[in-house]
């Protein structure tokens, strides 16, 4: 099975491998599966401190999922107090699982471990330190993908970005069509970021208007009920 999706070959794989933190998570076996990665999207709910990452894949010989997601739900985003991290259950094809040994079923290192769901009961007095460290590690990966890879994908793909520092330079391409395609992707990415901001603002305004509506209608409902009695 070959990846027939059109676009810059291995765009997201290259962008992630150029980030030192993510490069440590990606194994050689992971690279073959990540070549089928088409897009990564980040979304955030305005009503609570949480965000979700969605990874879109083309048809591939590793798993049946077309979308793998990871959502981080926080109690306090500033103090890093977690509630849980919900990930997609990967539907691996037989003998294609990258997170466990096929023969012994023992866990092994893989970027796809990132999609494992983790629950951290903050109210429990017995703190699982190992679980907490894993949550913090996954959260760090998630934030890196959200703030760095998704928002500055072109820079990471071209190798112009480092954590906390980005430079711009003119890239020369052997194939002019590839250069034009990268520019189009960058323009569309900027539009997508602006649309996400507008959507977040709209949801926040709607939430406030709905809250005001409830406050205004509550006395009216009480008054109507009183007269009916």
TrEMBL record:
Coiled-coil region(s): 181-208
Q: Does Coiled coil show up as a keyword for this record?
A: yes
Q: Does the keyword Coiled coil apply?
A: yes
- Annotated keywords: Chaperone, Coiled coil
Organism superkingdom: Eukaryota
A GO-annotated cellular component: nucleus
> Which Gene3D superfamilies does the annotation name?
Nucleosome assembly protein (3.30.1120.90)
SUPFAM superfamilies, A to Z: NAP-like
- Gene Ontology BP, a term: nucleosome assembly
Single GO molecular function: histone binding
Q: Which family does it belong to?
A: Belongs to the nucleosome assembly protein (NAP) family.
Q: Which PANTHER family match?
A: TESTIS-SPECIFIC Y-ENCODED PROTEIN
Protein name in the entry: Uncharacterized protein
| Organism of derivation | Citrus sinensis (Sweet orange)
